[in-house]
Every structure is written in structure tokens, then in C-alpha cells.
Amino acid sequence: MASLSNQWLTEGWIDFEYKKYQLQAFLQEASNNFDAKKLYPKLSELIAHYEQLQVFSTQKKLLTESFPKEISRLDFEQFLVTYESVLADDSLMQELNDIVSFGLKEMKSKLNTGKELYEEVEQQVEIFPIGIQPLRTDEGYFFLNDYLQKLISVYHYEITIFESYKEQYRGIKTTHLANYKISVTKNYESIRYELVKTNRSLPNPATYAVEFKASYPFTETMLPVAKRSLIRAISKPK
User: Fold this and answer.
1) 113-131 pLDDT tens trace
2) Residue 4 covered by a domain
3) Other C-beta atoms lying within 10 Å of the C-beta of residue 169
4) Domain that holds residue 205
5) What are 173-182's contacts with CB under 8 Å, separation 24+?
6) Which residue among 13, 16, 26, 131 is least enclosed by CB atoms within 10 Å?
7) What is the percent of the chain with per-residue pLDDT over 90, rounded to a whole number?
8) Would you say 206 and 130 are in contact if contact means Cβ atoms under 8 Å apart?
9) Does 160 lie in the same domain as 93?
10) Are residue 21 and residue 112 in the same domain, yes or no?
11) Can you say whether residue 150 is alpha, beta or left, with left for phi > 0 and alpha for psi between -120 and 50 degrees?
12) Which alpha helices (DSSP H) does 67-203 contain, by range?
């Protein structure tokens, strides 16, 4: 399984051809996953590595711009003064620059493929409430319907809020409770009724059904997309 560590850019042998080989092996595996309609974990890994290269590129540019400059040429006829940075890239830094430039270009192309697949999957999601919804919807249950396996997977969820230095983010903590074979007697309402009986701390739980109009790999695509879609659905102004 081809993967890149968080320090792949600077660890080990810093050589353009070697790093190119590492990156292409990772991107090929991501491509194979996307072809098989598997979004995760490769899409999130791609985003993290792409952002890491962007940070390196930006910080390098800021560092270069902050260094003092010296006059390299005077043009008295045009009244122009040309400056040149005192900081010159050594061979190692130049190698890193080449790797970062190549990596950003290749990763962006593959990211676009992953995002297109995500948008395709997201368009197939339908979420709707089961039963009477309470005012508090940051905790409850959701039922993920896998038509291919004829299974309803039941999850307890809890919406979490965490802050970065820029803004607030919503996350979701989930616990898988059970799987039910779809039948005439085993439907959303009957499952919700069972959950209420077994968990008295949630007498009227927020409950949602998450359905996909098309079939996708469950663990790598349906479940993570269901979670993200549910967060957005719950977070919408009532």
C-alpha cells in the first residue's frame, strides 16, 4: 500500500527523481481507489499533503522576500533600479523547490478527480427525518441504508464543535450500534421504536435516514459522505 508520511518531502534522500517516484506511487494508488469509487482515506490524505506543499511554497516565498536585497543593475536612461535577493538557493533548496512545484501540479490534478467523485456521490445522497424531531438535534441516531447488501446500519451520533484560530468547525462522533436486514417488519420506524425502548436517556431522539440512489463502497465512500452530509443537514438554519 503506497502512502506518504507527513514528513515525506524532507525525510530520507532528497532527490527529485526519488521523491517523484514516491509521489507517483501514492498518486497511482489514489487513482486506482477513485476508479473503484473509493474516496477515503486517499482524498483526505491528498488534501493534507497538498496543503503541506502549499505552506512550504508560501513560507519559502515569504522568507525570500524578507531577506535584504542589493542593487544588481542601474539604468540611468530609464531611471530603473534592479534589485537582487541576497539569499540564493543552494542545490538542496533548489531540489526541494523542484519537488514542490512538481508535487503541487500533480496533486492538484488528482485532487480535482477526487473532488469530482465526491460531488458525484454527494448528489446521490438523500437525508430525511424519522419520527417527530426534537428541538435538540446535536445527538441522536442515523440509519444508513445499503441497498446492495439490503442492510440498514444504525449509528448513534453526536455533533461536536471545535475551534481553530480562524473559525469554528463541526465534527461528528459516531458509534455503530447494529445492522438490520431490510424487511416488511424491520423498517425505520420499528428500529427507532426499539432504540427508544433500550435507551431511556433519549426518549425522543433526533433520527435520520441516509439513503444513496446509487451503490458505492460502504466503508470508503458511503459512510464518510453520509457523515459529512448529515452534519450539513443538521447545521442548516431551521
Assistant:
1) 999 999 999 999 999 999 9
2) no
3) 11
4) 125-235
5) 174/227, 177/141, 178/153, 178/154, 179/151, 179/152, 179/153, 179/154, 180/151, 180/152, 180/154, 181/150, 181/151, 181/152, 182/145, 182/150, 182/151, 182/152
6) 13
7) 61
8) no
9) no
10) yes
11) left
12) 91-122, 188-198
The pTM (predicted TM-score) of the whole model is 0.81
User: 20 with 102: CB under 8 angstroms?
Assistant: yes
Q: Rounded to whole angstroms, how far apart are CA atoms 121 and 34?
A: 12
**What separation in angstroms does the CA of 3 have from each of 23, 51, 110, 203?**
9, 16, 15, 45
Q: Is 159 helix (H, G, I), strand (E, B) or coil?
A: strand
Residue 68 lies in a domain: yes
Q: Are residues 98 and 179 in the same domain?
A: no
Q: What confidence tens digit (pLDDT) does each residue in 75-105 have? A: 445 545 454 554 455 677 788 889 999 999 9
Residues 6+ apart with CB under 8 A from 236: none
**In-domain check, residue 108:** yes
Question: How many whole angstroms separate alpha carbon 170 and alpha carbon 119?
Answer: 20
Last residue of a domain, one of 82, 107, 122: 122
Q: Does 100 share its domain with 47?
A: yes
Distances (CA, A) of 150 to 104, 144, 182: 42, 11, 6
d(CA 208, CA 155): 10
